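Usage

Read records sequentially. Each one opens with the input sequence:
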Amino acid sequence: MHAVDHVVLGAGAVGMAVAEALVRRGESVRVVSRSGLRDPVNGVASLAGNVTDPAFAESATRGARVVYQALNPPYHRWAQEFPGLQAAAIGAAQAAGARLVVMDNVYMYGRANGQPFTEERAYDAHTRKGRVRAAMARDLMAAHDAGRIQVTVGRASDFFGPRAGEQSLIGDWVIPPALADKPASVMGDPDMPHTYTFIPDIGENLVGLGERDDAVGHVWHLPSPETRTTRDVVALVYRAAGTRPRLKVTPAWQMRALGLVNRTVREINEMRYEFDEPFIVDASRAETELGLRATPLAEAVEQTVRWYRARAIPSSAAEQRRAEHVAPGVGRAPGSSTGALRPVKPARQEGLPREADEGTRTLDLLHGKQTL
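and closes with the structure output:
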């Protein structure tokens, strides 16, 4: 196996955004995932395997200068699998003598309580997934402080963009219906301001962190487009789609009822608080000290809608691919679409198993095609 300078662990939306950012810089890059890349990407080498196997992980990362941790297990298996995946990434980077750049989120902070999130915010997680993230964050910095590896952490808010359809609230719930001139579905209060991070920006800025010696040993909030309400973001989607904005909110009681029979929805419900109150992530430190930047919101939405439009197929054909779709959600939780158009070949999440049958039934329940 030939050596490369950069190894990306994970072939999901973020992992591929990192790989594409590296290719644009002319860097050599390998993407490592359980099943390998479904579709070849120019300039990106693909390797299939299990990174929790130390021998495989060491071989996959040997000779790398920077390793990017973008692995992410299914929501309901976070507590069981996520710490082990991170430990594998730490071990692989340590064996390679490489810098480790980690994709993270903001679950460990808990509720916003009326204040924007900054990097100085204390960890006050009140959810299981938030506590998992908090423990992992402490483990990362402990490995850095002990001199095992050099760590840089980039934290993003709920994201949207190419390949994120199964993971993003501003994804399969919204864009295919907008293209089909049908109502979009959201949860929580759509009139609360909410920071959404654009996936190509995450890729660019994680690579930027990996290039900066002065970023090492710190947590950085990755810049996002300007914060607006979810209703405003959805309106921009419809404007880009050329259709009339229509929005429906899935009520909390319905989500709770679905959670009784569906573990994916049960996990989504735990994080609903993010969408019931102002949720603003402040990335000014990374902008000021490192010069990191984000794409303006309208442009980011237009790029995302173009990506969906280019991959849209009639719903009758998409129905034949139902087993490839899972339930929509927050952050890592997966999803599917409503309306007449659906994306072709949704992004696989790091080669880990997906709960296809359960997720498809979730979407049917949410849109009234089945009853409890």
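Summary fields computed downstream for this record:
- The first strand starts at residue 6 and ends at 9.
- Residues 162-194+229-277+296-366 form one domain.
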